[in-house]
Design a protein that fits this description.
The complex is a heterodimer of chains A (159) and B (406). Chain A has 159 residues and is an alpha+beta fold. In chain A, 43% of the residues lie in helices and 19% in strands. A four-stranded mixed sheet of chain A has the order 3-2-1-4. Chain B is of the alpha/beta class and 406 residues long. The chains are: A alpha+beta (159), B alpha/beta (406).
Chain lengths: 159, 406
């Protein structure tokens, strides 16, 4: 592994969202919320979602975690805002493929916009859980669950 | 001063095959000397049969190998009565053995169990769950200053209804060497609790004579001392082992099986149900030979010197916080630290890319992390193959990480 791989993981977008996480607050008016925990590293966060009709109108999060998990949550709150439930769920599936390196379609990757910065994680199997934590919590919130653990949501990656 | 390795890197096939690798995670598991790996192959090549069973000569060879391994490990640990050394999967199984077999029989409602906030989950959760199961009170001795256990608090917690006091010999997260003799004195003065000591982080680093420690039970893991994974042990007083019920039932641990009842084999077999891990036992004995060849005093001196170097160099960097006590001679070869504004997992990933293997996380000690007020730390740990150059690579990689996240 090289410094270039590390640069790809910690792109400026990631570092920026880690330093200044967007929508980093609780949301008393949320329609639903869920806690995400990564038991292996102790990361934990809460995602709040406000749904209007079929659309995700607003998201926010709070918690402690590494740069990857924080940036991923922060990027999620911006990317999912305004999407329909079906679009949000499709994006969840796409991001799962991106994190594990299964998504190679250049058109899809290009269409991700800033979220594409999270694709570097696929070279670091031990960090896939960090990137996916917020996404699993978001999905759990939409599905009406109040918590999710990455141990249950995603089996340990094999590298 | 520049410290060469105490043991040549060429003794360790994994390190020899990866010259650029800086392995600083020996507190999690140590790399294995070639002698240990050769012993495993040798056992299966020349001596493999199921011990204590066949009447043929090969089975006798396997039985003898297993027996000799126990004697060798007992000698390494200063255990005079080798049959009181039970082979287990490691420290975790040893603790579960005591908490289950002894604990369920001896601890009841109204009793209490005392542990410390410093403990690895393996010496915390079994006791917590035993207390929950039998309705006993679970008491936690808090931390003192600078990575220590608050002995006065522990003393206040132990009383005539205390059935177990469990503490580590050396902290896996901070490296602190705890005053075992003083802890034993406190417990004995207060009553008759079983004194259980977790030696997983002590045996690979400090010359440990278990019989002289005064504890009732002492557990250790083979893989942290150069042996293979899946083997370790529990040393316990003979009278206690003979009085307590078995942990698991099956072959080898029985004396006689009637239709409705059974009786138990003598020590150590009573607590070793099923085909034992002979491969692990003989390889662990080889690890003892290897360490005695180096000399445990030399191992200790080497680690203290490296730890002092690392603490001085990391401590001098702005934005680095060292956790634990200030004195390298009061810890094992462990340096736990955090960087301002950079999460330990990001540090570990950046260090990994620089070829430096460290542990980042809660070190299986979440109650301790809560008290330290950090979600996790980075832990560098040293053993016989590490050098001043390894420390320098660590420090260089930490500085680069700080620059990346600045």
């Amino acid at each position: 592994m090289t410094d270039a791989t590390l640069d790809a993981l910690y792109q400026e977008v990631i570092l920026d969202h880690n330093r200044r996480p967007r929508n980093f607050h609780a949301m008393p008016a949320a329609s639903c919320s869920a806690d995400g925990k990564n038991p292996n590293c102790g990361d934990q966060l809460t995602i709040w979602v406000r749904v209007e009709g079929d659309r995700v109108a607003e998201l926010s999060f709070q918690g402690v975690g590494c740069a990857i998990s924080k940036a991923s949550a922060s990027l999620l709150t911006e990317a999912v805002k305004g999407k329909t439930r079906a679009e949000a769920e499709a994006l969840f599936e796409t991001m799962h493929r991106v994190f594990t390196g299964a998504e190679t379609d250049p058109t899809v990757l290009k269409g991700l916009g800033p979220l594409r910065a999270l694709s570097g994680v696929s070279k670091f199997p031990m960090r896939v859980k960090c990137a996916s934590l917020a996404w699993h919590a978001f999905k759990a919130a939409l599905d009406g669950a109040d918590s999710v653990s990455t141990e249950a949501a995603a089996p340990a990656p094999v590298s | 001063m520049s410290l060469a390795p105490l043991a040549p890197r060429s003794d360790f096939p994994l390190l020899a095959a990866a010259p650029a690798l800086t392995y600083l995670d020996s507190a999690a598991t140590a790399q294995k000397p070639r002698a240990v790996l050769d012993t495993i192959t040798g056992y299966y090549t020349w001596a493999n049969a199921n011990p204590h069973r066949g009447a043929y000569a090969l089975a006798a060879t396997a039985t003898q190998a297993y027996h000799d391994a126990r004697a060798r490990v007992a000698r390494f640990l200063g255990v005079a009565d080798a049959d009181t050394l039970l082979f287990t999967r490691g420290t975790t199984e040893a603790m579960n053995l005591i908490a289950t077999a002894w604990g369920r029989a001896m601890v009841g409602a109204g009793d209490n169990i005392v542990v410390t906030r410093m403990e690895h989950h393996a010496n915390f959760v079994p006791w917590q769950q035993l207390a929950l199961a039998v309705g006993a009170e679970f008491r936690i001795a808090e931390l003192g200053p600078a990575g220590t256990i608050d002995l006065a608090h522990l003393e206040a917690l132990v009383d005539a209804r205390t059935k177990v006091v469990a503490f580590g010999h050396v902290s896996n997260a901070l490296g602190t060497i705890h005053p075992v003799a003083e802890l034993v004195r406190i417990v004995r003065a207060a009553g008759s609790a079983l004194v259980v000591c977790d030696g997983a982080q002590a045996v690979p680093h400090l010359r440990t004579w278990v019989d002289t420690l005064g504890v009732d039970a002492y557990a250790f893991s083979g893989h942290k001392m150069g042996g293979p994974m899946g083997i370790g042990g529990l040393v316990m007083r003979r009278a206690i082992l003979e009085a307590m019920p078995p942990y698991q039932f099956g072959g080898d641990m029985i004396e006689w099986v009637e239709d409705r009842t059974s009786t138990w084999n003598v020590l150590p077999h009573k607590f070793e149900a099923g085909t034992p891990n002979v491969e692990g036992a003989v390889a662990l004995a080889a690890a003892c030979d290897y360490l005695d060849g180096l000399g445990m005093d030399a191992v200790r001196a080497h680690e203290v010197a490296l730890t002092a170097e690392a603490m001085a160099a990391l401590g001098a960097l702005p934005g680095v916080t060292l956790h634990g006590g200030p004195d390298a001679a009061a810890r094992s070869g462990v340096v736990s630290f955090t960087l301002d504004g950079v999460h330990p997992h990001d540090v570990a990933t950046a260090l990994d890319v620089a070829g430096v293997c460290v542990r980042a996380g809660h070190h299986c000690a979440q109650p301790l992390m809560r008290a330290l007020g950090v979600p996790a730390t980075v832990r560098a740990s040293f053993w016989v193959y590490n050098t001043s150059e390894d420390v320098a690579r660590l420090v260089r990689a930490v500085r680069e990480t700080q620059a990346r996240f600045a």
